[in-house]
Amino acid sequence: MTKIAIISIALGLAVMIVSFSILEGFRNEIQSKIFSFGAHLTVSKYDTNNSIEIEPISGPALVQDLNRFPQVKSAQPFARKTAIIKTQDEVLGVVLKGISEVGSRSPMRQNLVAGNFINFPDSASNDVLLSRKVADKLRLKVGDRVLFYFIQNPPRVRPFRVSGIYQTGLDEFDEVYVIGDLRQIRELNAWPDSLVGGVEVVLKDFNRLDPVAEDMYENLRYDLKLDKITDQYAQLFDWLQLLNRNVVIFLLLIIFVATFNMVATIFIMILERTNMIGILKAVGATDRQIRSMFFYRGLSLTVRGMLFGNLVGLGFCALQYYTHLIPLDPENYYMDRVPVFWDPAIIVLLNVATFATSLLAVLIPTYLISRIKPVAAIKFD
């Protein structure tokens, strides 16, 4: 029974550590992919038309105003323009997202799977980044040159070179966006250097998104609108919230099972030692002294179970983190391996919660000792 109790605590703690590490890994991995395309907040011209190509705004002045907010980490201009890519055999509609040289230092680099990031010379760069899906559909590879057709008056055609291929696993980006130089979109739209399509704002703390967005909205000009990334990609963030709820329910069930096993173990220990309890009471031992014996015995089992649980849980996480032992299908899970995120605060909290619930489980059955009579206990068989 003591071995069962130790194994129960160890497995419960190990599963909780692994569950939280993988959940945080999924959340951080998906959020980083989303943030590589869209920042926490997007400021653009207010327009009732929901077109991809939005009205231009003055970029330098707006960036300067946004950087005055203490919670803003960076503000980067961008612009979007719809285009049709035509190869010898295929035709595909895409959205060209233009970024500046400052934006080239964004987390977008982590999504590259082939080639190099866009090179920003003194003039407008002809380099573009295609997604793996777009490149496969058009049968393009790094270094190929391809024609982009822009439907405007008059229509424009521009040759671009595929400098790199990215992959996020998120269809919202991979099937739509091509990354290019912001100056190309300025030239196509005949904008001066001061105009941009909008400004993407990265905050120092994403958890303060709502209050910062409210404060920023109150201080923006009347002709500007502010979009939160949680609203732009609501389905993805709702899915992450659903994962959080499912894991919490799962963890509560694990804690309940581990606690029940500990209570059952202490009860059985008391029944097995009923004769000993009667003899101890007969020679003058108090209920408190006898309870403390079983309490410290249960404490010993808890500590040993937690030690093994940490070794198993953290060991599995380390193995997956460094070796990528368990792969995933990117088509269904947005990534090619099970992600692991190390959060010392969560690990400590799980250990504290396991220790507290186990001690409570040990204390409950020990109060049965006060109801045991010495004479009946000595005769107990």
UniProtKB/TrEMBL annotation:
Main localization of the protein described in the UniProt heading: membrane
Ranges annotated as spanning the membrane: 247-271, 301-322, 342-369
Subcellular location field: Cell membrane
Pfam families: FtsX, MacB_PCD
MacB-like periplasmic core domain segment(s): 4-215
InterPro entries documented for this protein: ABC3_permease_C, Lipoprotein-release_system, MacB_PCD
Superkingdom of the source species: Bacteria
Bilayer topology annotation: Multi-pass membrane protein
ABC3 transporter permease C-terminal domain mapped to chain residues: 249-374
Keyword tags: Cell membrane, Membrane, Transmembrane, Transmembrane helix
Family assignment from sequence similarity: Belongs to the ABC-4 integral membrane protein family. LolC/E subfamily.
Official protein name in the record: ABC transporter permease
Lineage, highest ranks first: Bacteria, Pseudomonadati, Bacteroidota, Cytophagia, Cytophagales
